[in-house]
Amino acid sequence: MGRPRLRSPLARAVAPVLGGILFFTVLGLAMWGVAALISSNSDQAEEILVPTYQDLGRTDTFADSIATDGPIVLPDLVGDDLSIVLDHTGADPQRGWAIYLAHPADRSPECPVAVVPGTRTFTDCEGRTIGIDDLALPPLGIQPIVSDDGLLTLDLIAAEP
């Protein structure tokens, strides 16, 4: 006995559509279930979806790169489209780290800066040349952390006001 066949044109047109709707309904419910499972503990879900720390790597590697090419712009690590600038000063790769927001202090985040290669200066959205001290400061609590073994980590959680 062969498989059943749909004989009417209406049945042949409606059956695949209903099958597709059923498939996407089951897929949507499965995705909703996974999202509900992840977000059941809000602290854990936030840590999974938005990491509170960003491990960058060895301090000596980043210090050498900054000394050669200038500060590093890291796009949107803080959230809300706030890019940051990582800077290092001094000869000791364990000390002298700083974070700034990647926009001038006297402008909004919609005015991003770009590093002038090989320098410690930036150009902003209006074409002005500014120094690193003219950049906006990050929210309190966002800071670089250097471990005893020379690894650089960024703390991306702002302190409560």
Distance between the termini: 74 Å
**Mean pLDDT, as a whole number?**
86
Stretches with pLDDT under 50, minimum 5 residues: none
Q: Count every beta strand, where a strand is a DSSP E run of 2 or more residues.
A: 9
From the spread of the alpha carbons, the general shape counts as elongated
Which class best fits the helix and strand makeup? Answer: alpha+beta
User: What is the tally of helical segments?
Assistant: 3
Domain count, please report it: 2
Strand order of the largest sheet: 1-9-8
Question: What percentage of the residues does DSSP assign to strands (E)?
Answer: 15-25%
DSSP helix fraction = 25-40%
Main pleated-sheet profile: 3 strands, antiparallel
Give the SSE string.
HHEHEEEEEEEE
Radius of gyration: 26 Å
List the helices and strands and how they pair.
Layout (H helix, E strand, L loop, with lengths): L8 H30 L3 H8 L3 E6 H11 L2 E3 L9 E5 L8 E5 L12 E2 L5 E3 L5 E3 L11 E4 L4 E5 L6
Antiparallel strand pairs: 1-9, 2-3, 3-4, 5-6, 6-7, 8-9
In short, what is this structure?
It is built from three helices and nine strands, in the order ααβαββββββββ.
Describe the model.
- By secondary structure, the chain is of the alpha+beta class.
- It has two domains: 9-48; 53-155.
- It contains three helices and nine strands, in the order H-H-E-H-E-E-E-E-E-E-E-E.
- The protein has a three-stranded antiparallel sheet.
- Strand 8 and strand 9 form a beta hairpin.
- It is elongated.
